[in-house]
Amino acid sequence: MSEKMRPALIGGVLLGVLSAIPIINLANICCCLWAVIGGLIASYLYIKRSAGPVSPGDGALVGLWAGAIGAVIYLVLGIPLSLLFRETFNLFFVRLMSNVDPMQAELLRQQIEAQSRSFGETLLLSTLFALIGAIILAIFSVLGGLIAVPLFEKRRAPAGPPSSPQ
Amino acid sequence: MLSERRQIVSEAERWAIWTFVALSALVVAASIFAAPFLASRRAGFAAYLIYGAFARVCHQLPERSFHLWQHQLAVCARCTGIYIGFACGAAIYPLGRAGWRMPHRRWLILAAGPMVIDWALGFTGLWENTHLSRAITGALFGVVAAFYLTPGLQDFWATLKLLRRERASTYHQPS
């Protein structure tokens, strides 16, 4: 396994699984937090393992691999889970909201009922939005991998030999 | 070597990447406002797609979002600030860049500070933050983030070009 793939695999599995599990995946509503964290962790692990200083581009590449792995896991796990637990999750969310703001909870309940669709429609829309979600996860994972380098890489890259006078 | 990484990406490519980042940021920022506009014009499905796409990255709670044309924006006030700030930062980046280099990490941490404090004070109930405080602190972070992501993506392009060069030299090596 290349030196980039193991950190990417760890970051990718983390972001994919956490983004797929209902309730836990709610953290993604904070600017795709799991995706950014997945890319950040992958890049951080690569920085720690790397013999020399890591550039932001390398961090972004590790983030991209992590995002790709995470996106596949998210699609494979997330679509079936969201279809299976959609009703349970909606009920949970309405109950949670009713403790905070009963009026908002009632609006949410009405919105959910108004959007109720046939299974075929639900499957199509779930798949479409899951594909959009997977692309967004990958993009934010790249950004997470990229931003990890200025945060965690303290070594400086050698500047290289100066150009000779002509 | 740093010099090799910097030389592999031409000046024209750096400007092209900056243009791509700035335009993408502008499109994302514009779509935040397009959603309520389309909803008010009864273009329901188009608005639904935009709201649905942004639902992947934002809670979209109505009481924490700005409203226009009697519909909420596609993201909350904080996210609106972040995306608009990023678009502005990306647009002005050529004016403030230092040789297309990434700034020191302290500026990113300093820029994130007010946003984190604003969120933490609201979350703990110590202070009731407002749409404006969330948007402004988000915008500050967004502007500064653009100064990291733009040179970062240019360096990403350098990484991809180096990777392609390595693969090409491996492929052409005599057996």
UniProtKB/TrEMBL annotation, chain A:
Where is the organism placed in the taxonomic lineage, from the top?
A: Bacteria, Pseudomonadati, Acidobacteriota, Blastocatellia, Blastocatellales
**Keyword Membrane set for record:** yes
Q: Which UniProt keywords apply?
A: Membrane, Transmembrane, Transmembrane helix
Q: Does the keyword Membrane apply?
A: yes
What are the TM regions of this chain, as residue ranges? 20-47, 59-85, 128-152
What this protein is called in its record is DUF4199 domain-containing protein
Organism the protein comes from:
Pyrinomonas methylaliphatogenes
UniProtKB/TrEMBL annotation, chain B:
The entry's keywords: Membrane, Transmembrane, Transmembrane helix
Q: Which parts pass through the membrane?
A: 15-38, 68-95, 107-127, 139-158
Q: Which Pfam families match?
A: DUF2085 (PF09858)
State the protein's name.
Predicted membrane protein
